Amino acid sequence: MQDDSDxxxxxxxxxxxxxxxxxxxxxxxxxxxGELSPGLAGPALESSLLAITALDADGRIAGFVRAIGDxxxxxxxxxxxxxxxRGSGLGNAMMQRxxxxxxxxxxxxxxxxxxxxxxxxxxxxxxxxxRPSGKFGPGMQRLR
Length: 144
Prior knowledge:
- The structure is a single chain.
- The chain is an alpha+beta fold.
- The chain contains four helices and seven strands.
- It has helices at about 20-30, 40-45, 90-105, 120-125; strands at about 15, 50-55, 60-70, 75-80, 110-115, 130, 140.
- It has a seven-stranded mixed beta sheet with strand order 1-2-3-4-5-7-6, sandwiched between helices.
- A hairpin with a 3-residue loop joins β3 and β4.
- It is globular and about 40 Å long.
């Protein structure tokens, strides 16, 4: 696990944990991912195998990513960046950190994700391969 004091983008601090439930709910809603109840969001976050939360200098959530699954198959879920932080490199920094933790903690796992249409290039630069779909943006995978 990496040191929680690591800094990357614009004074952002990373913590190796999921975001608080209220922040998770608010950021998902702000990004158009729908409303969740605390009764659903809490257990979802508790089920995370790995998570990275990015906090700004004032301690506000700037983004988070998390992985769910088992030692053979991990699924990257909820890669969310605050709208005002998009394009800053924060998403890349969080994904690089999460993938490094996956490589260390789950060296035999295949890593999967579903990305929004138009985000394929971002994930391809991280080593994922597209799986086409006529209706949705492609699922992507990083096989070992």
